[in-house]
Amino acid sequence: MKLGKRLQQINAMISHGYEHIWDTCCDHGLLGAALLKRNAAPNIHFVDIVPELIAELEVKLHKFCEKLAPTGSATTWHTQCLDSAALRLDLYSGKHLVIIAGIGGDLTQQIITSILQNHSAIEIDFLICPVHHEYSLRQQLIQMNCSLINETLVKENQRIYEILFVSTSKHAASKPIHPVGSLLWQAKCEDAIAIRQQYLKTRIQHYQRQTRNNAAAKKALAAYQSVLF
Predict the structure, then answer these.
(1) Is the backbone of residue 124 left (phi > 0), alpha (psi -120 to 50) or beta?
(2) pLDDT tens for residues 165-180?
(3) pLDDT in tens, 6-62
(4) What are the domain boundaries of the chain?
(5) What is the dihedral of CA 70, 72, 75, 80, to 10 degrees?
(6) What span, in angstroms and rounded, lies between the C-alpha atoms of 69 and 80?
(7) What is the pLDDT of residue 143?
(8) Which of 2, 123, 130, 219 could form a disulfide with 105 if both were Cys (CB 3.0 to 4.6 A apart)?
(9) Model pTM?
(10) Cβ contact 37:68 at 8 Å
(11) Could you confirm whether domain 5-182 is CATH 3.90.1150.10?
(12) pLDDT for 69-80, tens place per residue?
């Protein structure tokens, strides 16, 4: 099945260099399958808490194994049925990328907090595409001293998503994470600029509705209102 624009963008942002890529909350495994097909890493892990989804995914992976990861391929797939917050990265050596996409920003925060608490000695990269609560998620990442590798916006089915690529390590090209984004607003083509203008408008309108007796919302509103193109 063809990837939607959101998963296509996430896939495009992932370069080689990881030993393990974890497609958490993987649902039907479309992103992980695309990573497997292009040998993005030696180990692609499909993780979901729903047993039926993992069982169905295992059947599909076995069925299409030769097509996705043919004999002699440098990539191996693994499935795990568990809460993504309970990942055991420490059982595997090498560089890790954890993908968290398609779930709420509040749940994303819980998963990241748990993973980092359980793996304080391991450098981890996260590729995140939350649904809602982007501002509070950014606040948490800043508090946890994560750094920014890249970020962008993508529009799919009339909805605009933030994609954040962050790390617990300080990459040579990494930057501080901004509360409302920095690279996020940079664009050259007219369509990309229009998406950013539309997204900024929705963020400002959202926090304007929340500001009554809400200091955090007022702070977020001021930050979004300060964005310049």
Answers:
(1) beta
(2) 999 987 767 899 999 9
(3) 999 999 999 999 999 999 998 889 999 999 989 999 999 999 999 999 999 999 998
(4) 5-182, 185-228
(5) 70
(6) 18
(7) 96
(8) 130
(9) 0.94
(10) yes
(11) no
(12) 666 667 899 999
Q: Which residue has the tokens 């797939």?
A: 77
Burial bucket for residue 68 (CB in 10 Å: 0-12, 13-18, 19+): buried
Q: What are the tokens at 151? A: 């970020």
Indicate the burial class of 26 (C-beta count within 10 angstroms; 0-12, 13-18, 19 or more).
buried
